[in-house]
Structure to design on (229 residues):
């Protein structure tokens, strides 16, 4: 369910809808106790520079699929104030907190055409990818053998899988950058940062224990030497 606040012009306010908006964000007690804050909230809406009749969604539009926000998607919404459904095009590279404006789908203006529908996007997190701006970050598990000997592994990206070289003797926590394999937004293209996490066997078999003993014997010196506060 979406809640909307109507902005009807530079010097006129739709009081009923505005009060609903203020209570929605700050609660009824704040609306009654801080009238100056109510005025500030109204002018904050005016700062959006919307045409008369514009409708602002107070409940953000949720994109449950992290990938859809990166690649772009079409969403169908029902607008309470106007009735009926409207298709919203979420552009590729949309991020959490971005606003999408749908021209002509707001409320009727004061003697003029309908205003715009303005939606705030909320993107659900991805189970393994983290987004920071246009960059993506991925923790990639690798085996002990891959870390020691080096390897070629497949890594998913927004443009499909790519081959990534694990360097010989890679340590857990080492980060490599895949240029322009992050989020694309207009002419800008982010990077993908892959951090290797060496995955140890979870078995307690005799074979694993012997292999661990061999690795321990091959480790020279104190691995925590030089660690100081």
């Amino acid at each position: 369910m979406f809640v909307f606040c109507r902005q009807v012009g530079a010097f006129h306010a739709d009081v009923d809808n505005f009060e609903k908006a203020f209570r929605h964000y700050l609660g009824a007690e704040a609306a009654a106790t801080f009238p100056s804050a109510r005025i500030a909230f109204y002018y904050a809406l005016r700062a959006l520079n919307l045409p008369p009749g514009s409708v602002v969604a107070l409940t953000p539009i949720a994109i449950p699929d992290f990938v859809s926000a990166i690649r772009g998607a079409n969403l169908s919404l029902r607008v309470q104030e106007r009735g009926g459904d409207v298709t919203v095009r979420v552009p590729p590279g949309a991020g959490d907190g971005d606003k999408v404006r749908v021209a002509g789908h707001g409320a009727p203006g004061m003697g003029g055409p309908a205003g715009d529908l303005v939606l705030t996007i909320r993107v659900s997190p991805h189970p393994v990818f983290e987004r920071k701006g246009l960059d993506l970050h991925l923790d990639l598990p690798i085996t002990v053998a891959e870390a020691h000997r080096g390897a070629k592994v497949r890594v998913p990206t927004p443009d499909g899988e790519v081959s990534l070289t694990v360097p010989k003797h890679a340590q857990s926590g080492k980060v490599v950058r895949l240029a322009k394999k992050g989020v694309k937004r207009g002419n800008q293209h982010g990077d993908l940062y892959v951090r290797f996490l060496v995955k140890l066997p979870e078995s307690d078999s005799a074979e694993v224990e012997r292999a661990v003993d061999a690795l321990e014997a091959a480790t020279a010196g104190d691995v925590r030497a030089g660690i100081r506060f």
